[in-house]
Amino acid sequence: MMTLLLSFCRSWQMLWKNRLYQGPSPRNQTYSVLYSYFHFGKKEQRYFSLTLPFLQNTKATKLLISKATSSSKSGKNRSKQESSVSPHPLFSAGTAKKKSEVFGYKKDQQHCFPFSSPVLLPTKPLNSEEWDKVKENFEQKDIFENWMIAQMVKYSCSIDIAKSLLSWIARKNNGVVGYKLLIGYLTLCVSQRQTTEVIDVYEIMKTRYRTLEPEGYTLLIRGLIHSDQWRETLILLEEIKKVMSPSKKNYGDCIKGALLHQEVNLAWNLYLEMLNHRIIPNWETFQAFFDFAKGVKNNPFERRLLDILLYLKHNQMYPTEPFAQSIKAWFESGHCSACGRMLKSIHLNSEEYEFLKQRVLKDVLDGGDQYRKTTPKEINRFVNFIKSCPPFDIVIDGLNITKMFPKIRESRTLLDVVSQITKQNLQVLVLGRKHMLNGSSRWQKNEMAAVQNMAYCFFADNISEDDAFLLYATLHSGNHCRFLTRDLMRDHKACLTDDRTRHLFFRWQQGHQLVFLNYYPGKKIIFQSVLTYDTVIQTTGDSWHIPYDENVVERYSYEIPTKWLCLRQQN
């Protein structure tokens, strides 16, 4: 029964293949959802446990990598430095919000949810009989399905649990699931970046509905931009244009999708289309261009970024802090501070990346090295696990990073790291060992359970080495994926058979490996900035940039110089 539930979405799609819905658009359907207090019978409480919400910042799309700044000034001088001349109070940032709080309720307080305590949700997928019992003990049975999917969205419930709910609903209704329930499930899939499930729901909606409500189009566009079917978002954008003007969010997501897939001209044309229709882009859209441009040597594209800055100037627009940081990072990324020339990017192009990926997987994973540290059975279990997951943004060596701070409880360190990263709506994989789940003073069960709720986790046998797992997961996820570990990977680099592969591996490692710069329990974690330029002798014809070793600095073979000599030809 459980196997059937877990594979629900595709079988559910098959139920609808011959049910082309020719009725009215969902925009013409009215839904009335009432909320009331409910209770569960004691006999059912074994299916439920308290599920606390984990807040996610769904607007954040980039890694939180910031440079640590230090100051030797006294507290008095620092306070003077931080103070600044304030504009007229009427125009000071935050004045309007403070006034609204003084003279009236906050906007979100006017429509507060009627329940103040965490709700009880299933902790595992339920079968039909179990869902029947749950509904039987629910007071407002006519709103049970819609209410339950809303709670799953609110508390970021497991996709498998939501699948079991919709599978139960489909069985009761001859394979039909209502539009509002579909939207709720789609919202959950998009928030967790479950691209495969988003595609499945998209196919169902294409078959069942001629047009969608704006919310449906918005969710599908946002969910599809990370998939190989991202060009479908352009079709959806055209569908919106038939009935209304697309929102800045619709345009912004399509632009992000184009940039994610290296379609720079398409992204820029969509941006110009927005301006022609007098639609002001949101800050995330502006930021996406600057984030894409880091380390890109492309003079025409740089001119486009300067056009964005001029647009902000002419319209008296003030960037948000994250956007300002992106602008700063773009100016600093790969430019020589002496002459301003762009240095060669450290990032691999698509051809180099595919070459490295195949060689690493062959030489390191298939070359016999991993079998001395784990078993073929566990390797197969891991590979199947990776294939069942969406691409990751960050892969974490859970055991390795927690050893960096021996005075802090390991599970606390891991929870702080995962919590900060997942708040940026990034897909995270944590690799660890099975002993981390046994419970101890260093590995508390409740903290490890919280980690498993926020991220994908794979726990290998205690005798296994997880370096090969980390490399496999990172390379399999794509060139955007980074990994967090203090391991320098020297053993795996030594397994590579030729100089070109070793050089590409080292470049890839420098551009993708994250390391801690500072950490204190409960505080914001600072990561060291990832290198954006290649540390090799470079020339552009009339200039030379030469990295060199300082006399007083002893550099190991796996380290790179930090000093550069800039030589320019004088006219």
Plain-language structure description:
This protein is α/β, with parallel strands linked by helices and 571 residues long. Among the domains are: 1-64 and 116-212, no CATH class; 350-523, Rossmann fold; 538-568, no CATH class. The protein has helices at 2-6, 8-16, 75-82, 95-103, 128-136, 144-154, 159-172, 179-191, 195-208, 214-224, 232-241, 248-260, 264-276, 283-293, 299-314, 321-332, 350-365, 376-387, 398-402, 410-422, 445-454, 467-477, 490-495, 499-512; strands at residues 48-50, 120-122, 394-397, 428-433, 456-460, 482-484, 513-514, 516-518, 526-527, 538-539, 543-548, 563-568. Strand 4, helix 21 and strand 5 (456-460) form a beta-alpha-beta unit. Helix 17 (350-365) runs antiparallel to helix 22 (467-477) and helix 20 packs parallel to helix 21. It is globular. The N and C termini lie far apart (79 Å). Residues 1-96 and 103-118 have low confidence and may be disordered.
Can you lay out the helices and strands and say which pair or pack?
Layout: H1 2-6, H2 8-16, E1 48-50, H3 75-82, H4 95-103, E2 120-122, H5 128-136, H6 144-154, H7 159-172, H8 179-191, H9 195-208, H10 214-224, H11 232-241, H12 248-260, H13 264-276, H14 283-293, H15 299-314, H16 321-332, H17 350-365, H18 376-387, E3 394-397, H19 398-402, H20 410-422, E4 428-433, H21 445-454, E5 456-460, H22 467-477, E6 482-484, H23 490-495, H24 499-512, E7 513-514, E8 516-518, E9 526-527, E10 538-539, E11 543-548, E12 563-568
Parallel strand pairs: 3-4, 3-6, 4-5, 6-7
Antiparallel strand pairs: 1-2, 8-9, 10-11, 11-12
